Structure prediction request, 212 residues.
Amino acid sequence: MDLVLFGIQGSGKGTIAKAVATEYGFELFEMGGELRKMAQEDSPLGKEVNETISAGHLVSDQLIMKIVENFLEQKSEDTKIIFDGIPRTMEQSKQFDEIMQKHSRSFNALLVDIPEEMAMKRLLNRRICVKGTETLPYPDNKEKCEAAGGQLVPRKDDNPESIKTRFKAYYDSTQPVIDKYKDQNKLLILDGTPEIPQVRKEAFALLEDKFL
Prediction:
């Protein structure tokens, strides 16, 4: 059974996704990463993604679902997948459900739940390495990242105004999808407020009890 992961920005869902994937042998489908990967491929779909991104256009739901289906077509029935970043809207959810049914794949959902105030604080405090891709989710008094040695700086879009805009998009577009899966008894809720090691431990226990 596959797993769809939800959580407001700053919830730590990306970290939890990687931990669950490693612990239980899931493959991780992360929408942003898959878009970047596809844009580098010399294939009709890769070229379509690259042209869309290069032109600065929003990636359509139709193209997003092509990427999801392309990913699934390369996986065996036994491959367990975590979907992070998809579906984000009710329309995406409708198409996602249809694709999963077409490929005879069942799934449940996990929401990493934290208060908006905590999410805001985490996003304002996180830092990204100017020389690499490392992001530190919590302040730890480091000035340089250990991986690449670059200065740790705030992300340009991590300011209160931009964060509030992203939160609104989440509540307006993604919350109805979460509610839909809750009504279908597909949703488990994980408290994301403790430190990451504790959240990881509780995520494993929750999944082992209900899903795995």
In short: The radius of gyration is 18 Å. Residues 2-210 form a domain with the Rossmann fold fold (CATH 3.40.50.300). DSSP finds eight helices and eight strands in the chain.
